[in-house]
């Protein structure tokens, strides 16, 4: 069978393309006529039509061969936030991202789109309709956030119109959707262990949850608008569903959709946060002897008990972004994609 040769600007690579967001992105890029290579440490990307390169993004030689002939790179690889492994985060998100930038420049990649996170400005206190002008968190709550900040700075500072290397960072928040390995599975696991009975705080805190297809849409718009004359070069952009929702209403809707009871009883935020800090400290101290991972980490408790929603006005203005799927549709689609997590299964 003859293979169609695509123009270089339609040849892209997705680093982290086997992951949750990465794989949705790969599928949409293929639909839009891109030829796609995936570079990932995890070998689970079996999407037909994709060239798969297995490797660690800290390995420059492996990257150089995977990025040959590619003009556009999406970097959406990261260790999972729950891993709480400082050296892994530093190695992959900081040193690894440096390596990605060097490799891109060496092989002549012209555009690099980073998946950052809106959490780079989150310090555990309320953020209401936060814009991209908010400063980076001075005291990030965890190593994931700390290294995502450094990663974003590296990518945005590497933007160089003279050298023809353009970069942009997309900051999604609370991504959910089919095949998400985090939000719904952790929620259901917590419910199955009988720990989802409590609302942390008064339950009125508003947050952003963003359906994965909207996040993908934001990435592709950014990539296609990344030209030397564009205002988006070297800048970060929030991508959300633009429908802040009460954290506990969202959790309840997902739980009820899957057949579980919603949480009912209230616990004071400060008490739960203090307990989570204590548990985290215990886990660190006891790590040489026993390994246990608390469900209620300080970061999760902070996310569950504060306002954190962001304005995506800038993405609307500069790249014509508009969410394609509403929160209601996104939740329905997500719930029905997890038949195995339904109560009783
Ligand atoms: N999920 C969310 O709510 C949000 C996510 N983000 C960001 O979006 C991006 C994608 O997240 P998501 O899809 O949820 O995460 P996933 O864990 O599903 O995907 C990340 C992928 O990167 C791979 N990876 C990890 N380390 C390396 C490495 N050293 N070299 C090559 N590949 C590696 C992972 O493999 P393995 O599974 O084997 O580790 C995985 O396949 C991340 O950058 C994350 O920080 C931002 C905001 C919110
Ligand atoms: C146990 C319950 C209190 C909470 C269960 C749900 C949580 C697992 C998720 C709710 C908000 C999510 C979230 C992220 C991970 C999963 C949650 C904590 C991120 C930390 C993922 C990475 C990011 O960049 C930011 C996300 C914010 C929201």
UniProtKB/TrEMBL annotation:
InterPro entries: 3Beta_OHSteriod_DH/Estase (IPR002225), Lipid_A_modif_metabolic_enz (IPR050177), NAD(P)-bd_dom_sf (IPR036291). It is found in: Endoplasmic reticulum membrane; Lipid droplet. It catalyses: 4alpha-carboxyzymosterol + NAD(+) = zymosterone + CO2 + NADH; 4beta-methylzymosterol-4alpha-carboxylate + NADP(+) = 3-dehydro-4-methylzymosterol + CO2 + NADPH; a 3beta-hydroxysteroid-4alpha-carboxylate + NAD(+) = a 3-oxosteroid + CO2 + NADH; 4beta-methylzymosterol-4alpha-carboxylate + NAD(+) = 3-dehydro-4-methylzymosterol + CO2 + NADH. It is a single-pass membrane protein. Keywords: Acetylation, Cholesterol biosynthesis, Cholesterol metabolism, Endoplasmic reticulum, Lipid biosynthesis, Lipid droplet, Lipid metabolism, Membrane, NAD, Oxidoreductase, Steroid biosynthesis, Steroid metabolism, Sterol biosynthesis, Sterol metabolism, Transmembrane, Transmembrane helix. GO terms for cellular component: endoplasmic reticulum membrane; lipid droplet. GO terms for biological process: cholesterol biosynthetic process. Residues 13-267 form the 3-beta hydroxysteroid dehydrogenase/isomerase domain. The chain crosses the membrane at residues 270-290. Homodimer. This is Sterol-4-alpha-carboxylate 3-dehydrogenase, decarboxylating. It comes from Channa striata. The lineage of its organism: Eukaryota, Metazoa, Chordata, Craniata, Vertebrata.
């Amino acid at each position: 069978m003859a293979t169609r040769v695509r123009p270089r600007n339609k040849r892209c690579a997705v680093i982290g393309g086997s992951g949750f967001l990465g794989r949705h992105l790969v599928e949409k890029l293929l639909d839009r006529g891109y030829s796609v290579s995936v570079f990932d440490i995890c070998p689970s990307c079996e999407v037909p039509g994709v060239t798969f390169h297995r490797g660690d993004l800290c390995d420059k030689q492996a990257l150089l061969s995977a990025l040959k002939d590619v003009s556009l790179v999406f970097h959406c690889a990261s260790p999972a936030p729950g891993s709480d492994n400082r050296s892994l985060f530093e190695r992959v998100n900081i040193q690894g991202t440096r390596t990605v930038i060097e490799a891109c420049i060496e092989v002549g990649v012209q555009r690099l789109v980073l998946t950052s996170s809106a959490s780079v400005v989150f310090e555990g206190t309320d953020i209401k309709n936060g814009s991209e002008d908010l400063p980076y968190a001075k005291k990030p709550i965890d190593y994931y956030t700390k290294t995502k900040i450094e990663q974003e700075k590296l990518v945005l500072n590497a933007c160089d119109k003279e050298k023809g290397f353009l970069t942009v960072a997309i900051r999604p928040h609370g991504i959910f959707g089919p095949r998400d390995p985090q939000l719904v599975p952790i929620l259901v696991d917590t419910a199955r262990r009988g720990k989802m009975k409590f609302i942390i705080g008064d339950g009125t805190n508003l947050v952003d949850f963003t359906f994965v297809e909207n996040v993908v849409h934001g990435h592709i718009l950014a990539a296609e608008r990344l030209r030397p004359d564009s205002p988006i070069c070297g800048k970060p952009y929030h991508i959300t569903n633009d429908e802040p929702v009460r954290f506990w209403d969202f959790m309840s809707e997902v739980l009820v959709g899957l057949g579980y009871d919603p949480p009912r009883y209230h616990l004071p935020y400060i008490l739960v946060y203090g307990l989570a800090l204590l548990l985290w400290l215990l886990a660190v101290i006891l790590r040489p002897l026993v390994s246990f991972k608390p469900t209620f980490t300080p970061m999760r408790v902070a996310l569950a008990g504060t306002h954190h929603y962001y304005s995506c006005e800038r993405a609307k203005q500069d790249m014509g972004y508009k969410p394609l799927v509403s929160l209601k549709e996104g939740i329905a689609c997500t719930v029905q994609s997890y038949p195995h997590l339904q109560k009783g299964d």
